[in-house]
């Protein structure tokens, strides 16, 4: 009985040859994936090094003083007449980071209802620096929410009004002389504001208030 010819290379398998173009395509794809992974690893290492070197801290907002010279709610129709004055401190606590305030605006809310809005100046704030701003709101606003009237009746008897002061900011943090990272920041200040009738706003009873800063 004739035996089948033996394979001179046991365990080996010879399939159809891989076309050179397909092999090159696979190699290019692997190279791109590796480069992409290496790029993001490098970015992560750079951010970590910057954080370790600069150790950034959040900017700090506080309301130093606030008072009302007019806060009147009329009915049929409902109008809120207001004159609100505030003194706001903005602090950059960082030793090696500057802050560009590219956009800054303030809004005033009463019982969840926004009655005032103003734009604030843009500026650059250096290291370990404090900037004072004096946002003021005056005018008349139509009130459509009945809950505002109920809150006003309760607080008008005390001559203190709970007002929410919001700041929206677009900032850039300057690391050294060349890297700038953009952030959108929201700041909320819950303040209890006295109504001043004797003209002496310094002794009106306002309490210094630290604001919440959210990047």
UniProtKB/TrEMBL annotation:
Membrane topology listed for this record: Single-pass membrane protein
Alphabetic keyword roster: Membrane, Transmembrane, Transmembrane helix
Residue ranges of the region described as Disordered: 1-23
A GO cellular-component term linked to this record: plasmodesma
Transmembrane helix recorded as keyword: yes
Residues covered by the Late embryogenesis abundant protein LEA-2 subgroup domain: 87-189
Record-level GO BP terms: defense response to other organism
Annotated localization: Membrane
Biased composition (Low complexity): 1-15
Transmembrane segments: 32-54
InterPro entries tied to this protein: LEA_2 (IPR004864), NDR1-like (IPR044839)
Keyword Nucleotide-binding attached: no
This protein's name: NDR1/HIN1-like protein 10
Organism: Dioscorea cayennensis subsp. rotundata (White Guinea yam)
